[in-house]
TrEMBL record:
The lineage of its organism: Bacteria, Bacillati, Actinomycetota, Actinomycetes, Pseudonocardiales. PANTHER family: PUTATIVE PHOSPHOTRANSFERASE, TRNA 2'-PHOSPHOTRANSFERASE 1. One of its GO terms (biological process) is tRNA splicing, via endonucleolytic cleavage and ligation. This is Probable RNA 2'-phosphotransferase. SUPFAM superfamilies: ADP-ribosylation (SSF56399). One of its GO terms (molecular function) is NAD+ poly-ADP-ribosyltransferase activity. NCBIfam families: PRK00819.1-4. It comes from the Bacteria.
């Protein structure tokens, strides 16, 4: 499949597996899964004809590994980033002592005042590397990097989970645990 087709398909999957399943008449399970055949049929009814092999290619070649099949291969879900109410059931995990968040300058005053909030998603998204955080921030403009004291957060009882595609998830990061990287 061509790169631009992969991206187009990935955006459709993101829309329906994270945000708006009802728009193609599918329902996600409580933990975010949908039957692959049901998804393909629903997409087909809404103008996106896709074979199982093509879906597998979209999943495998996705730059951020956004989607995963279950062990049997019969179901698929987004690994993180949902705005609809799903409970992914990820186990608690201990993060590395330092994590990073990429954002843009216009959000920084609010972030330093009230901390990092999940906004429309379920959790705040943090990365283990500066490079990833920079790329996340750069989606919106000149990236600004925030350093998150994950060791102190863990110590203070904050919970972390690691998504299947290596994004660190936590409900809130208070300002005391944040520092702007200069
Ligand atoms: C900001 C993409 C004001 C936050 C990426 C961010 C990531 C605040 C925006 C994943 C705030 C939310 C997640 C506060 C946080 N006041 N602004 N208190 N707290 N913000 O997209 O982290 O392509 O929901 O800094 O690559 O940017 O979708 O989160 O700028 O992995 O797979 O509010 O989404 O991946 O934006 O990105 P988002 P994010 P996908």
């Amino acid at each position: 499949m061509k790169e631009h087709d992969l991206i187009r398909m990935s955006k459709r999957l993101s829309l329906h597996l994270r945000h708006a399943p009802e728009r193609i008449g599918i329902e996600l399970s409580d933990d975010g899964w949908v039957d692959v055949d049901e998804l393909l049929a629903a997409l087909g009814r809404h103008g996106l004809r896709l074979t199982r092999a093509e879906l597998a290619e979209v999943v495998e070649r996705n730059d951020k590994r956004r989607y995963a099949f279950d062990d049997s291969g019969a179901r698929i879900r987004a690994s993180q980033g949902h705005s609809v109410g799903v409970e992914l059931g990820l186990p608690l995990a201990t993060p590395p002592p330092t994590l990073f968040h990429g954002t843009v300058a216009r959000f920084v005053p609010a972030i330093l005042r009230e901390g990092l909030r999940p906004m429309r998603r379920h959790d705040v998204h943090l990365s283990a590397t500066e490079a990833t955080a920079r790329a996340v921030g750069a989606r919106r403009g000149g990236p600004v990097l925030l350093v998150v004291d994950a060791a102190a957060l863990t110590e203070a009882g904050h919970e972390f989970r690691l998504s299947a595609n290596d994004v660190w998830l936590t409900p809130h990061v208070p300002p005391a645990f944040l520092r702007q990287l200069r």
